[in-house]
Specification:
Elements: E1 3-8, E2 14-18, H1 23-32, E3 39-43, H2 49-60, E4 64-68, E5 71-75, H3 86-89, H4 98-106, E6 108-112, H5 125-133, E7 137-141, E8 144-148, E9 156-158, H6 164-175, E10 180-184, H7 190-201, E11 205-207, E12 214-217, E13 226-228, H8 233-244, E14 250-254, H9 262-271, E15 273-279, E16 282-287, E17 295-297, H10 309-316, E18 321-326, H11 336-342, E19 346-350, E20 353-358, E21 366-368, H12 372-384, E22 388-392, H13 404-410, E23 414-419
Parallel strand pairs: 2-14, 3-13, 9-10, 17-18, 21-22
Antiparallel strand pairs: 1-22, 1-23, 3-5, 4-5, 6-8, 7-8, 10-12, 11-12, 14-16, 15-16, 18-20, 19-20
Helix pairs in contact: 1-2, 1-7, 4-6, 5-6, 6-7, 10-12
This protein binds uridine-diphosphate-N-acetylglucosamine.
The site of uridine-diphosphate-N-acetylglucosamine has 22 residues, from α1, α5 and α6.
């Protein structure tokens, strides 16, 4: 059932908001459960649409799962299928993460080629090239990638760009391969490091996660594990900006790992937001007076995350002067700009850079989410705009933000959900 959110803006938000487990850490973890048959227990798993979609795929492959509170039990003892169905794969790009684990564990995988998506072309050539170098035979048949290999062989792979899911896929593939795999120019995101930790716990011989080069010596067998998912740094960044939007706000964001957010926290300080550490995992954000404009350039971790640029754009519409956001990862990640401009923002996009002139008051308007983070940005804009903002396509927001309505309502936000 399609729904819309109706947000009454400019309500002061006060209180604590807790960050859930990281969606982008759970998705590869779900795929990794295929590497060793058995029972896994994942803790702090967010109940978001993308996680349910990956679980539906896993079920189709023959696994069972039980999801109670934030604990997810997965049983992969009876996998009987290596083919990911198009209806599910087309809903989630991360379905490509099944390539590495399926071919490594079962010698075969059939995964629909993910189509282009709204934020950019997002090809998967690095995944394909890496697996081919490891000896896999890859064919495209009727829109599906058919990958076969009797035994993957360790080799040296140099990624053209430190792609997150390509690094994760190749790490999983290498854990059961013959000999050593070296992945150079690997992604260093905390979610990649988390996957490395899980694989290591499963018995994999893996070194260098979080560095440029990852070394994996293949093992004959791995074992299932229990593991706790790391906090979601993008959700945390979203709520830190939320707390900084209005002077009256007094928001403490809990379950934040500061070391995952160094660049966004520095940017918030540059903008003039006070960041107060309440305890090791809690941050109070406070806005006082005029906000400074700033320059943001998205880059692989530890650079500024592309997923947070739409969120920061909303804050920068309230800063005094010219701000610049340069997007280096996804070519279509400025679709939210047109919606923000309809609310009264003054943003021009030139090539890969959005130029924001501020401050501009935002006016409540009907708006449409174009992707997950764009949707979150429009939600934030609605919370600082006057009158009422109606957000359409909210299913996209629910792909990655657990209980967002409940969490924000507890802070005092006035939000209604209506079925369309
Ligand atoms: C992951 C995240 C996503 C985040 C992104 C960047 C998951 C499930 N998703 O996506 O939320 O926005 O990292 O931090 O973790 N590229 C290629 N060929 C490839 C692979 C990637 O050209 O085979 C390019 C992409 O088009 C993009 C860049 O590399 O320009 C980085 O993309 P990548 O890190 O792969 O993003 P995802 O892993 O898809």
């Amino acid at each position: 059932m399609e729904r819309k959110y109706i947000v009454k803006g400019q309500k002061p938000l006060k209180g604590e908001i807790e960050v859930s487990g990281a969606k982008n850490a759970v998705l590869p973890a779900i795929s990794a459960t295929l590497l060793a048959p058995g029972i896994y227990k994942l803790k702090k798993v967010p109940k978001v649409r993308d996680v349910f979609c990956m679980l539906k795929i896993l079920k189709h492959l023959g696994a069972d799962f039980n999801f109670e509170k934030d604990e997810l039990k997965i049983n992969t003892q009876n996998i009987n299928n290596v083919s990911v169905p198009y209806e599910l794969a087309s809903q989630i790009r991360a379905s490509v993460l099944f390539l590495g684990s399926l071919v490594s564990a079962f010698g075969e995988a059939e995964v629909p080629l993910p189509g282009g998506c709204k934020i950019g072309k997002r090809p998967i050539d690095f995944h394909e090239k890496g697996l081919t170098l490891m000896g896999a035979d890859i064919k495209l048949k009727h829109g599906n990638l058919i990958v076969k290999s009797n035994k993957l062989k360790g080799c040296e792979i140099v990624l053209d760009f430190p792609s997150v899911t390509a690094t994760e896929n190749l790490m999983m593939a290498a854990t059961l391969a013959e000999g050593e795999t070296v992945i150079k120019n690997a992604a260093k995101e905390p979610e990649v490091v988390f996957l490395g930790k899980m694989l290591k716990k499963m018995g994999a011989d893996i070194k260098g996660c979080g560095e440029d080069t990852i070394y994996i010596r293949g093992k004959k067998k791995l074992k299932p594990v229990n593991i706790e998912i790391i906090p979601d740094r993008i959700e945390a960044g979203t709520y830190l900006v939320l707390g900084a939007l209005l002077e009256e706000n007094e928001v403490v964001v809990k379950n934040v790992k500061k070391e995952y957010l160094e660049t966004p926290l520095l940017k918030l300080q540059e903008i003039g937001i006070t960041i107060k550490e309440i305890d090791k995992r809690s941050i109070l954000v406070k806005r006082k007076g005029i906000l400074n404009p700033c320059k943001i350039i998205t880059a692989p971790y530890p650079g500024f995350p592309t997923d947070l640029q739409p969120i920061f754009a909303v804050l920068l519409t309230q800063a005094q002067g010219l701000s610049f956001i340069t997007e280096n990862l996804f070519e279509n990640r400025f679709l939210y700009v047109y919606e923000l401009n309809r609310m009264g923002a003054n943003i021009k996009v030139e090539d890969r850079t959005a130029i924001i002139t501020g401050p501009t008051p935002l006016a409540g308007s009907p708006v449409k989410a174009t992707d997950l983070r764009a949707g979150a940005a429009l939600f934030l804009a609605g919370l600082c705009a006057d009158n009422t903002t109606t957000i359409y396509n909210v299913e996209l927001i629910e792909r990655g933000y657990e209980n967002i309505i409940e969490k924000l309502s507890k802070l005092g936000a006035d939000i209604k959900i209506e079925v369309i």
